[in-house]
Write a structure and sequence with these properties.
heterodimer; A: 346 residues; mainly alpha; globular; B: alpha/beta; Rossmann fold; six-stranded mixed sheet; 30% helix
Chain lengths: 346, 546
């Protein structure tokens, strides 16, 4: 019992400590850290609109966090979520542009399918390279991020460009492709996408724990020789793990493309793919915990956005500092051990 | 600080040493006296607390109570560096060597003599550069090492790459590493586990020489025969306590085993003669395996024209020193030869392997696993278990596709719980907690989980590789009994082992492998350990030495 409580309290304490350490940096800039933290808090949760935006930002982070976690359970480090989500989002938009007349459920379903398949394909490439050629997935996924960005730019600007806008963005998707905004958040573009993200967390958790392929995937992640001896094809599982990761990451853009923007805008992702690594890290790759860690990171993102206007010397970049400090305190396993041992000796 | 004088004899007393991990009382009030110039055997089952005691003595763990008294002074070791400073050093079961480095570099690693300052500085000029920035003085190092090796007659090629040397020499390097650091008490953890009989003899000769020079040695081991052969005194531990200390020439293997386990044990289980049927469960015909690209230290022909048959109802033992192709043979029949990530390892295969009349020469491990086969792999940590998974999953590993484990891709959680519970019961795995991670069990119990998993499904063919490596006496008896029981149920068993006792006890037929070939075949009782040892070493002498 006490053990379980400690398990929950430890990350909470770690997050609090990380936020305090991170905020105390602002002393150097001549601000009151507590004031800064209060600003962040009220900007993240101060109104219905603020809360809606926080949840809106949390949605893609949940997907990318799950993507990184899925690959990690298979023993792979997916740094390519950024590229996978870019192409997934673009595919959703292209579906909506090519078939503008599809009606409500079908349009959305088609867009989602396009996003998943494209993301999965983009994820499967490094998986395949790893399995067949032994190329390290960290290298290939990073490089494929650059390729994806270039590819997305080309498709956006030369094939489906919105000619009425100065911005690099695609035409709008058909009306049958749009989520309806939740009414309760004073206009924040929060849609059913967040419910899909939460469902994905639950589904991934079930998949990993309760299904045979999930078990095989985790077995490969724990020990390749043991998995191979147990009749599991390590190579096939690696391709599958990366495809799964890519498919989940591919969904990260739907909240934006099918909701807030109604089109694919280049650069819509605020590094969601990379922040997803931190989200997964904070949650220790536990799919259910990712719901909460994505929420925290969404809140930091939204909360820090107003710092530019509200303070003299601190900008929204503080969000990155806070994220870093939270990750450091949460991952400081050795520190907790030390703490326990001290207590044990007393 | 009280530094031990170099060259002093070391008299070490452990008084009331206690260490508790959570709910596990690993060591309770351990007393031990290690006299200078003696070889002391430390025996006990897995989990009895031997390594915990030694790790405290060696500075890896801090004791919760009790003290270590070196030459009359109580000492606290915060790290192995402190321990080695006091003259206490340890050779681990898995060597701590940087394999691509030369022998010399390995010996001096972490204690490198550095170049003196250029002569323009006066001799007592204060050190201005940190030691770490000074260049290594390899010439001086070589001189110091040669002095040590000459004194104890330990011969090593200083310029050779460690990776290219046989295990026996690598172990010798570990010992020289300690002597180079002026260790006077050497702790050896399972030193003979990886050695050939010949290498073991050489090791023992070296240890006797060290003893003659006033060094003391502690040997942690499972092999009671060796305890009888080399030690002066033996201490026995059981369940975290010291349960006995005896003079070696006043005791016997049987007495030691009984002390260790707490009851009478059959060291060699009685085995009834086999009643093999004529149908083969395993057959290798002209099986040849070549490396497409052989490294500088590798043979290109790994397996050379193997012909071997295992019939239903018999145990065939493959004796051989590790590295003579048994491992690849094992992987070939399990289907993992080229299973790792990053493409094929590049083997060229000729000939055939059949398991239960199914050709599996080019089969994947999942095809092999669909047969009625039980596989006890070489390395239980790497290949046999998912260490961080609970035991329900570990009891399913390899059988996850069977209908009793999963249906339409969904795991049958209740069935898994029941299966693991019954394996734990039948195979006496302790503690009986199937939700524990595999790494929480002692080596013997981990092995029982594997053996239980692989034998409880009544396989018709069993491949067992080193099934009792690092397993305690009680568990050895149990595992051997289970293997023979499988045989008597009509299974054919193929046993790979570098432990000749095990081979002699279990096998109805014995084949010897050397450099990828079968160089001898005997039926039960038709050969002596000496004969086998000779063949294993390549017909009388290990040619790698010469």
């Amino acid at each position: 019992m006490a053990n379980k409580l400690a398990k929950i309290l430890q990350p909470v304490a770690a997050v609090t400590l990380g936020l305090l350490i991170g905020a105390s940096v602002t002393v150097l800039a001549g601000e009151n850290p507590l004031h800064v933290l209060r600003l962040i808090f009220s900007s993240a949760f101060g109104s219905r609109y603020d809360l809606g935006m926080t949840l809106f930002y949390a949605t893609p982070l949940m997907f990318t966090g799950l993507s990184v976690a899925a690959a990690f359970h298979g023993g792979l480090f997916n740094i390519g979520a950024e590229g996978q989500l870019t192409l997934g989002a673009l595919a959703a938009a292209v579906a909506g542009i090519v078939f503008p007349d599809l009606t409500a459920p079908w349009g959305i379903l088609l867009a989602i399918a396009a996003a998943v398949v494209t993301g999965a394909f983009w994820g499967a490439i490094p998986g395949w390279l790893k399995a067949v050629r032994g190329s390290h997935e960290v290298i290939t996924t990073i490089m494929l991020n650059a390729v994806a960005a270039g590819l997305a730019g080309w498709v956006t600007l030369y094939m489906v460009r919105n000619t009425e806008s100065q911005n690099p963005e695609t035409m709008a998707v058909g009306p049958g492709f749009l989520f309806t905004k939740f009414g309760a958040f004073d206009g924040a573009p929060l849609t059913v996408a967040i419910a899909m993200a939460v469902l994905s967390s639950v589904a991934l958790s079930f998949f990993l724990r309760r299904t045979r392929p999930g078990f095989e995937l985790r077995a490969v992640g724990t020990s390749e020789p043991a998995a191979a001896t147990a009749g599991i094809s390590v190579k096939r599982m690696q391709v599958f793990a990366m495809a799964l990761a890519g498919g989940i990451a591919g969904l990260a853009g739907i909240g934006d493309v099918l909701g807030a923007a109604g089109k694919f805008k280049m650069g819509f992702s605020a590094d969601y793919g990379f922040v997803g690594i931190a989200v997964a890290l904070l949650a220790r790759n536990n799919p259910l915990a990712i719901i909460f860690s994505a929420f925290l990171f969404g809140a930091l993102h939204k909360g820090a956005a107003d710092l530019d206007f509200e303070t003299e010397n601190v900008t929204r970049d503080l969000a990155v500092v806070l994220q870093a400090c939270v990750i450091l305190t949460v991952c400081a396993d050795g520190f907790w051990e030390l703490f326990k041992r001290r207590k044990a000796r007393v | 600080m009280h530094e031990t004088q170099r060259g002093d004899a070391l008299d070490v007393r452990i008084v009331g040493l206690t260490k508790i991990f959570g709910a596990v009382r690993a060591n309770i009030g351990i007393n031990l006296h290690l006299k200078p110039g003696t070889i002391h055997g430390l025996v006990g089952e897995n989990g009895a607390g031997k390594s915990t005691t030694m790790k405290m003595l060696y500075g890896l763990y801090a004791p919760d109570a009790g003290e270590i008294v070196v030459n009359g002074t109580a000492r606290t070791f915060k790290s192995p560096t402190d321990a080695i400073g006091a003259g206490i050093g340890m050779v681990h079961q898995h060597f701590m060597l940087a394999e691509p480095y030369s022998v010399l570099d390995n010996i001096i690693l972490g204690a490198e003599p550095v170049q003196k300052f250029p002569k323009v500085f006066p001799r007592n000029f204060p050190r201005i550069f940190p030691r770490a920035l000074c260049p290594i003085n390899r010439r001086q190092a070589a001189e110091r090492i040669t002095k040590v090796t000459a004194q104890y007659g330990l011969d090593v090629p200083l310029d050779a790459r460690v990776a290219s040397l046989p295990v026996g020499i690598q172990q010798r390097i570990e010992i020289i590493k300690l002597l180079y650091r002026h260790a006077r008490l050497l702790i050896l953890d399972e030193p003979t586990a990886v050695l050939t009989p010949l290498e073991t003899r050489e090791l023992f000769a070296n240890l006797r020489r060290l003893r003659a020079e006033g060094h003391s040695v502690v040997i942690i081991t499972h092999k009671l025969e060796e305890v009888m052969a080399i030690t002066d005194e033996v201490s026995v531990m059981r369940a975290g306590k010291m349960v006995g200390k005896v003079e070696t020439n006043a005791t016997s293997v049987e007495e030691l085993a009984a002390l260790m386990v707490g009851r009478e044990v059959n060291l060699r289980i009685p085995v009834k003669p086999a009643a093999p049927r004529n149908d083969s469960v395993f057959e290798a015909r002209n099986y040849t395996l070549r490396r497409a690209k052989a490294g500088p230290d590798e043979r290109s022909v790994v397996l050379d024209d193997l012909n071997l048959r295992v019939r239903a109802g018999e145990v065939v033992g493959v004796a051989g020193v590790e590295g003579n192709g048994q491992r690849e043979f094992f992987e070939a029949m399990v289907g993992t030869l080229s299973a790792g990530a990053g493409g094929k390892k590049g083997y060229r295969i000729a000939g055939h392997i059949n398991v239960l009349s199914t050709p599996i020469t080019h089969a994947s491990s999942s095809e092999v696993r669909s047969l009625e086969i039980g596989i006890i792999p070489y390395d239980r940590h790497r290949e046999g278990l998912l260490l961080t998974h609970d035991s329900r999953e570990n009891c399913m590993l390899g059988y996850q596709r069977r209908p009793e484990a999963s249906r339409r891709g969904f795991l049958r959680m209740r069935a898994l719980a029941a299966t693991s519970a019954s394996i734990f019961e039948t195979f006496d795995v302790r503690p009986r907690d199937t939700m524990l991670e595999a790494k929480a069990f002692s080596g013997g119990n981990q092995q029982k989980i594997i053996v239980g998993r692989e034998l409880s499904r009544n396989p018709r063919f069993v491949v067992a590789a080193n099934p009792i490596r690092g397993v305690d006496v009680g568990a050895i008896e149990f595992i051997h009994t289970q293997l023979i029981a499988a045989r008597d149920r009509g299974a054919g068993v193929l046993l790979f082992s570098s432990d000749l006792d095990e081979i002699m006890t279990l096998s109805d037929r014995i084949v010897v492998m050397y450099e990828g070939r079968i160089v001898g075949e005997f039926s039960r009782g038709a050969c002596t350990i000496e004969q086998l040892g000779m063949l294993m070493g390549g017909g009388g002498g290990d040619k790698r030495h010469g």
